Amino acid sequence: MNTEVSNAGADAGSIINPTLNFSALGLAQPILRAIADAGYTTPTPIQAKAIPLVLSGGDLLAGAQTGTGKTAGFTLPLLHLLHTKHQHAQAGKPRCLILTPTRELAAQVEESVKTYGKYLHLTSMVMFGGVNINPQTARLRKPLDILVATPGRLLDHVAQKHIDLSGVEFLVLDEADRMLDMGFVHDIKRILALLPKQRQNLLFSATFSNEIKVLADNLLHNPGFVEVARRNTASELVTQTVHLVKQAHKTSLISYLIKTNDWKQVLIFTRTKHGANRLAEKLTKDGIPAAAIHGNKSQGARTKALADFKAGNIPVLVATDIAARGLDIDQLPQVVNFELPNMPEDYVHRIGRTGRAGASGAAVSLVDGEEMKYLKDIEKLIKREIPKVVAEGYVPPARQETEAPRPPKPQQRRPQGNGQGQKQGQAQKQAQPKQKPSGKPLSEAAKHQRKPQKPAFAPKGQMHHSGNRGR
Ligand code: AMP
Questions:
Q1: 40 lines ligand 1 (CB under 6 A)
Q2: How would residue 78 be classed by pLDDT, with cut points 50, 70 and 90?
Q3: What CATH class has 238-382?
Q4: What distance in Å separates the CA atoms of residue 336 and residue 181, rounded to the nearest whole number?
């Protein structure tokens, strides 16, 4: 691999190369106009590095995650290349294929294509599962330049001969590490086999596991390599704190924190879909409107929940990792880990939802005694201790919350999912605790959950008092 290693060393908003502007990158005028309309003045580090490489026609391996401006990093030069090498778009035969792991990311990427390409005569569509296939089939009968798709639904269209991939000149694998984590490797291989040999390939990934390296070696030819700092080295913008609290008290604590700090926009992560639903219901009952977003929800419900949250109509969105992946919510002030993820990298992704585009943010984690090992792993990864704080004035409920036991420990490294909620659904269904039929004797764990609670457990000497703002 002929790689040019460069580390721009910053996130989207944190440090932007002040000497460079978009026009210096050689992008076509209509694209520069659209960028100006979007309010961007300077390219982010990933954009400054990736755009010239893509414009030169080479393959690219990019290490960047959501929040770095990576979407414009590949969208802008691809729009330029498609525009300057103009050809008449053909029905059902895209020239550019962008694959993403999730529906939300696909929708957001296509939105970016439309935003930056609004003064160009290029056409695009987005395609993902979980929604009626017929409108997509109808759209494929019209001319198409750029297709943004999740792998499963794309293969459905291939199987039904709605689409011809032999005209693809540009391929992007966005969040390739997530696609592999979610079990898409065979789907990707099947799709690659349908593409013409001669094409330009871009691979974006937040992490470089051996599987990613193998994929990159097979896919890319003499790629340029760009990387921007991982959020775990550039997360200074995010104030991180931990509340040590029993699992059974977490709902009352989070409700207290939201109310006393008057948090207006909070993204809460739970480990399971069931947990997300339950928490959203309880908060809503407690007077805090909340919606849950996860793979079992219909696409319509997910889109509506996200739109309501973005518009500020509901202050709380509860999400699982997979559903939240790639959500582009600008300047989200508050992220809460209702449970810590068992993969420390997921913590980094989660807190990456806040402190974006130069804004400061806060990430609060509610940690039960059984999650201390996850906390240690996270602290090892981010190379720092996260301050433990207590919520001033919070009194745990005297009566035990009728809380189900904490989510089961994951059996495997990662939940499997196909971005359309099916595999993820199966994996999580298996992982759900069986409900005890009423009247049956309680398990030891359940008995313990019913005992009157001591105040939140706290290893001695580890507490700092949080201020009023809970930061
Ligand atoms: P992404 O990493 O592609 O998800 O982008 C993260 C956020 O950064 C998005 O909300 C973009 O609108 C924003 N963004 C992208 N490029 C720039 C730029 N050059 N200047 C300021 N914000 C940007």
A1: yes
A2: very high
A3: alpha beta
A4: 23
